[in-house]
User: Fold this.
Amino acid sequence: MVHTVGISGPNGNVGKATLPLLVAAAQQGKIKLAILHRKGHVPSQAPAHENIELRAINYEDSVDQLARKMQGINVFISCVGFEGIPYEAKVVEALSRSPDLVTYIPCSYSARWSQAELHDPALGPILNFMYTGVNKAKELGLSVTTFYTGVFDLYWFEYGFIGAPLKENTVWANSKQLANPFPITVMEHLGAALARVATSDPSSIKGQQYSVVTFSPTGNELVELYTKLNGAPTKVKDFTDADRAALRADAENNGAIRAGYWDHWAGNTWAYEADGITGDKNYQGPSLEEVGRRFL
Assistant:
């Protein structure tokens, strides 16, 4: 039987990488697709088709009103960005009122974080904000299908989320981080993995955990890559204990989660395929060098 996949946040970075593949699956008759979008923001990648339904949504609406938009959805993929997370608990409550829902894929695309980190006074608040939907789903007893990722290519190479914007030709890392791998996830890889899982039999993905890490270069390999792409020697800036402390104190700019990534990098404690997590190995796209060139 053909099932229905719902997607929210279709116009964001993750949504734009995922939606075309879901549209293709719907056009091929593999699924029915419900695209939840903000009023006035119909995604350009949503063609008219008998298996594709556009559902305009207002996150300010009541749970009862939102629940009507969730009817018939079996697998729900949340692709909303940070600005949509405050509404995620309401969305999950609306989903819980539908007898059709089989599993919920939350928008917490990130590294694996420990219970100690979730309760850390600096890091815990931002992690629990990010897990708003997950926590609500667990409270309501809904099935959650989880995706773990590295830092997105855009955030690594352009935004410098871990202190290394490519154009500045600087890598911020200490000796341990230079020797250890850092996980980078290409957006198209995540989109393909989400679509592949969501178009599978819904009962087979309930409660499952997946990881999508496209590349795992060491810090030294990143230095070599930056030197090659920029055509000049890359500066290595030492990441010190003082740097870590300053980041953890910078709540306004989510510094604690950035410091958390540096911690995992120094200890090589990623564990993306531990505890029964399925790592996606289907990436066949551009090389890390080719991906990096996009951001020059």
